[in-house]
Write a structure and sequence with these properties.
Blueprint: E1 3-7, E2 11-12, E3 18-25, E4 33-39, E5 46-51, E6 57-59, E7 67-72, E8 77-82, E9 91-98, E10 107-108, E11 112-116
Parallel strand pairs: 2-11
Antiparallel strand pairs: 1-3, 3-8, 4-5, 4-9, 5-6, 7-8, 9-10, 9-11
């Protein structure tokens, strides 16, 4: 069973930066596709960024050029660097993992809250 624990959420002013971290344990981390998702109040959860086992990143259009996803396999960690934050980035951010060859996000963290407000 894979366990994912997110950290780094906070209150930040518009235009500011945050770095989210997701620590994984209990599985073959380096083989997993990893992803960051978010859910804003009253909205459905959406994919923000994903990264393959060979570190190819993918981003939703709304965060391209502002967010960067990366992974550190030696530390079983995936990071989300968020710059130029906007109020519409406010949400609970979740980390998720997909097994090699899988088609669903099988493991989820508990989420970390990011609030962008002045």
């Amino acid at each position: 069973q894979v366990q994912l624990v997110e950290s780094g959420g906070a209150l930040v002013q518009p235009g500011g930066s945050l770095r989210l971290s997701c620590a994984a344990s209990g599985g073959a981390f380096s083989s997993y596709r990893m992803g960051w998702f978010r859910q804003a109040p009253g909205k459905e959860r959406e994919s923000v960024a994903t990264i393959t086992s060979d570190s190819s990143p993918y981003y939703v259009d709304s965060v391209k050029g502002r967010f960067t996803i990366s992974r550190e396999n030696a530390k079983n960690t995936v990071l989300l660097q968020m710059n130029s934050l906007k109020p519409e980035d406010t949400a609970v951010y979740y980390c998720a993992a997909m097994r090699r060859g899988g088609s669903t996000w099988a493991f989820w963290g508990q989420g970390t809250l990011v609030t962008v407000s002045s």
